[in-house]
């Protein structure tokens, strides 16, 4: 019986090795955009909880700046849109690689290492990483003040803030949490001394929790957010870039920017922390 | 992109560190759950109504709550006051969760020993505690070994959930590796095999134990 078991495990391994050779190669056959048009549905991967880009309102519907962008794209294609939620931000690129989703719009920073695995559209938003500390910490002015043994820095697993924090902090301890919400909660509750995250997300969290946290707006990096698309799918990349060129700073984009970044009225409509 | 499986040997150190933490976490959680579970199991069948009610309540409550929720609760609610930290919260969460299932296994094991055994022991002059210790529990032990084995294996597998409260166990190492290398298929396949090796090794040990006890029967 044991012989059979090892045979099965060996067979499983062989199948896995076989599969891996297909992963990561360029796209063949019809482009993703053509497939979207044919099935009349655009499936967008996202990771909710990143204010004000992707959030869920009280009815559980996706809302936010990225949702407006995705919906406008689906309208331009005359197809239906579906947002798929990945609580684990790090699971988005693998899901795009396996074709589970057509694209990722999730406040994703355009980064060299990611660009080896997926293709990026032109940037649609620019931001940077900042620090957030508990309100009772009134002394911290810079990330350098936090780089001491015993200090705990919380980050969202798989985010740019996580990578940056691991490079910056030589003495402090970096803690990976499952998503921004839990990482921010750790700071709010006093289990971590600071959080490294994108500026817009920190600004909104500070507004919602003004009595317990404080943002330190020393920008640690300059980042461009892009739409992640299947690797080397030229037709899709070109279509998305053409769309962005006409969408950016247009009427819909201005309405969306005013709604999500220039006003706080939407905060009551989304799920409370 | 190069050979895709390179990602495994290149990060072997990290993966082994993660595995070590998973093993430590599971071992400490076991150390918590066995005494608590056995005690709860004994309380469950106790003649004292209050004691057995408390034990039943605990078991029912824990069994009715997902481990993930329990971990978040211990870390974010209880941990806020007790300053537990991620590792201790993980040990406590896993240990208390597993204890509820061990309690049920112990109860079933004891109840599977024929009632006459206890009556015979008591009538030969033993106290309740003596009868439990020398007559009932040794017989029950044999019966509970197989379900205990699956409970221990479940515990090791459940330990992967602690990655959500920033314990750098094997699963979190793998998540981080996937988010920087994007080799999800290779990393998760290898990690699955690592978990399997540990649980398979454990189940072999327990089968050996079972065989040993069967001889003495």
UniProtKB/TrEMBL annotation, chain A:
The Solute-binding protein family 3/N-terminal domain, residue ranges: 41-264
Pfam families per record: SBP_bac_3
Keyword Signal among UniProt keywords: yes
Domain Ionotropic glutamate receptor C-terminal residue range list: 41-263
Main location: other
Signal peptide segment: 1-22
Protein name as catalogued: ABC transporter substrate-binding protein
From TrEMBL, chain B:
Segments forming a coiled coil: none
Compartment list: Cell membrane
InterPro entries, per database record: AA_ABC_transptr_permease_3TM, ArtM/GltK/GlnP/TcyL/YhdX-like, MetI-like, MetI-like_sf
Keyword list, A-Z: Amino-acid transport, Cell membrane, Membrane, Transmembrane, Transmembrane helix, Transport
Family recorded in the similarity comment: Belongs to the binding-protein-dependent transport system permease family.
UniProt keyword annotation of Transmembrane helix present: yes
Protein name, entry field: Nickel transporter
Domain of life: Bacteria
Ranges for domain ABC transmembrane type-1: 19-206
Membrane topology: Multi-pass membrane protein
TM region(s), chain numbering: 20-43, 50-75, 87-106, 187-209
């Amino acid at each position: 019986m044991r012989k059979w078991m090892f045979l099965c495990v060996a067979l499983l391994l062989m199948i896995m090795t076989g599969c891996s050779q297909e992963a990561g190669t360029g796209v063949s056959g019809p482009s993703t955009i053509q497939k979207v048009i044919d099935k009349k549905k655009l499936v967008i991967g996202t990771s909710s909880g990143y204010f004000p880009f992707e959030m869920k309102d009280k009815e559980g519907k996706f809302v936010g700046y990225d949702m407006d962008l995705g919906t406008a794209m689906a309208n331009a294609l005359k197809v239906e849109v579906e947002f798929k939620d990945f609580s684990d931000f790090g699971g988005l690129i693998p899901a795009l690689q396996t074709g589970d989703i057509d694209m990722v719009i999730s406040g994703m920073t355009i980064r060299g290492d990611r660009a080896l695995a997926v293709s990026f559209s032109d940037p649609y938003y620019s931001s940077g990483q900042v620090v957030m500390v508990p309100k009772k910490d009134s002394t911290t002015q810079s990330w350098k003040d936090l780089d001491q043994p015993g200090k705990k820095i919380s980050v969202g697993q798989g985010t740019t803030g996580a990578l940056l924090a691991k490079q910056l902090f030589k003495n402090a301890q970096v803690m990976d949490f499952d998503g921004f919400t839990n990482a921010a909660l750790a700071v709010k509750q006093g289990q971590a001394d600071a959080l490294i995250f994108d500026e817009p997300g920190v600004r909104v969290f500070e507004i919602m929790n003004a009595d317990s946290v404080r943002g330190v707006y020393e920008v640690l990096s300059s980042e461009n957010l892009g739409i992640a698309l299947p690797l080397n799918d030229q037709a899709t990349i070109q279509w998305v870039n053409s769309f962005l060129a006409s969408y950016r700073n247009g009427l819909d984009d201005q309405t969306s920017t005013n709604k999500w970044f220039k006003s706080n009225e939407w905060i009551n409509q989304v799920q409370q922390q | 992109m190069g050979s895709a499986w390179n990602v495994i040997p290149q990060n072997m150190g990290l993966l082994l560190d993660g595995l070590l933490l998973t093993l430590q976490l599971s071992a400490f959680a076991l150390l918590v759950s066995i005494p608590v579970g056995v005690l709860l199991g004994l309380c469950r069948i106790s003649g004292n109504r209050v004691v057995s009610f408390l034990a039943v309540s605990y078991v029912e409550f824990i069994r009715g709550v997902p481990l993930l929720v329990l971990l978040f609760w211990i870390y974010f609610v209880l941990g806020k006051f007790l300053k537990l930290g991620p590792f201790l919260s993980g040990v406590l969460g896993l240990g208390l969760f597993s204890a509820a299932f061990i309690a049920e296994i112990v109860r079933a094991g004891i109840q599977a020993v024929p009632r006459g055994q206890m009556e015979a022991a008591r009538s030969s002059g033993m106290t309740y505690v003596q009868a439990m210790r020398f007559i009932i529990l040794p017989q029950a032990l044999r019966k509970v070994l197989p379900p205990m084995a699956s409970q221990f294996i479940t515990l090791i597998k459940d330990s992967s959930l602690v990655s959500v409260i920033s314990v750098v166990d094997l699963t979190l190492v793998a998540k981080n590796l996937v988010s920087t290398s994007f080799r999800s298929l290779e990393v998760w396949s290898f990690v699955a095999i690592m978990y399997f090796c540990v649980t398979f090794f454990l189940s072999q040990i327990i089968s050996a134990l079972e065989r040993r006890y069967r001889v003495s029967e």
